[in-house]
Amino acid sequence: MTAKKVLIVTGDAVEALEVYYPYFRCLEEGFDVDIAAPHKKKLNTVIHDFEDWETYTEKKGYMIDSNMTFEQVDPNDYDALIIPGGRAPEHIRMHDDLPGIVSHFFIAEKPIGVMCHGSLVLTTIADVVEGRKMTAYHACRPEVESIGAEYMDEMNYVDDNLISGHAWPDLPSIMKEFVKQVKGTTVNS
Fold first, then answer.
1. In the chain, what percentage of residues exceed pLDDT 90?
2. The pTM is what?
3. Which residue ranges does the record assign to the DJ-1/PfpI domain (predicted)?
4. Any catalytic annotation for residue 166?
């Protein structure tokens, strides 16, 4: 039996927990996982925490390798997609190859996990996201609504193959549903 293949799209300033947790969780399930970024390199991660501020704080995190570039990705080779948050979505969404990659997973109805600020990547593909329901970090609500998606004020939300979460504390619920969908055991509406 061939292992399921999962693609993670990210870049420098990805939230450490939102890339490491899904990466290791997918490996634990026996999935093949590729991390694609604008450049094949060691990516800098950041740690966002909820301290006594009105917003999150940011510190430097661990490094993680991207093993391929966006140009090298053939989305047909993958069964599922993960878009972590952090600040990476702000800049990777402008990469010419990324919208086509992400659109493929919506059109092919493959599982898509989007965490926190990962929703910003979807602003370049409004045509395939319009009418969907999702959650994201509350500061991303205007962007979610600007692409015609309905913002759900919940910590995690499943709209068919789109599994979205508010922030890294919601990863257990997000990844539980994501793994189920990749294995083909459930699709919730």
1. 90
2. 0.94
3. 4-181
4. no
